[in-house]
Amino acid sequence: MQLVVARIGRAHGIKGEVTVEVRTDEPELRLGPGAVLTTDPASAGPLTIATGRVHSGRLLLRFEGVSDRTGAEALRNTLLIAEIDPEELPEGEDEYYDHQLIDLDVVTADGTEVGRITEISHLPTQDLFIVERPDGSEVMIPFVEEIVSEIDLEEQKAVITPPPGLIDDRAEIASSREDAAGGKEIGGEETVGEES
């Protein structure tokens, strides 16, 4: 199975190094010297990593056969793809590869069907499950511990405990202001309306 592990960015310096946008939680395993990676577009590769180092918080790689800025710049926006065993699991507990999560059924803790994961969106702050609902609409669910309480690969399901408004498009808003004199709740009616 093929797994996108990085995207090549701009050239760095004059000796063929490039910046890379890492797309794996295991860069030391996938992007180490000697690793041979296929590419998209295929005409750019395969590429063998000659050296790697971190500079100002960014990973820099140099590939065998690429020794100048011109060659490095020609690789810009190329995706680096590693071949992995489909049965292989990530090293960390509670870590998953995208292909393990795609097509999982998403249900709430009480068993209510939400839909099926069709895509994983990797954002800088968190990952999102793109879930197709039975009616064909989509909902985005943050892949965070507070919301995704369980991933059961054996049962092929993800169990979620969504906050109000995440999957039902309606939010409950309650005021908790108290009257200073009697400790009574002021404006404590629940207001249900469309989430903006």
Count every helix, treating DSSP H or I runs of 4 or more residues as helices: 3
What would the principal axes of the Cα set say about the shape?
A: elongated
Strand order of the largest sheet: 1-2-5-4-3-6
Structural class: mainly beta
Helix-strand topology string:
EEHEEEHEHEEEEEEEE
Beta-strand portion reads: 35-45%
The largest β sheet comes out as:
6 strands, antiparallel, barrel
Mean pLDDT: 80
| Low-confidence sequence ranges | 170-196
Q: Specify Rg, calculated over alpha carbons.
A: 23 Å
In total, the number of strands is 14
Residues in helix, %? under 10%
Distance between the termini: 41 Å
Structure description:
The protein is 7% helix and 43% strand. The protein is mainly beta. Mean pLDDT is 80; it is low at 170-196.
Give a topology summary.
Elements: E1 2-12, E2 17-22, H1 27-30, E3 36-40, E4 47-55, E5 58-63, H2 69-73, E6 79-83, H3 98-101, E7 105-108, E8 113-122, E9 127-132, E10 138-142, E11 148-152, E12 157-160, E13 170-173, E14 191-194
Q: Short summary of the structure?
A:
The chain is built from 3 helices and 14 strands. It has helices at residues 27-30, 69-73, 98-101; strands at 2-12, 17-22, 36-40, 47-55, 58-63, 79-83, 105-108, 113-122, 127-132, 138-142, 148-152, 157-160, 170-173, 191-194. The strands form 3 sheets. The protein has a 6-stranded antiparallel barrel. It has a 6-stranded mixed beta sheet with strand order 10-9-8-7-12-11, with no helix packed on it. The chain has a two-stranded antiparallel sheet with strand order 13-14.
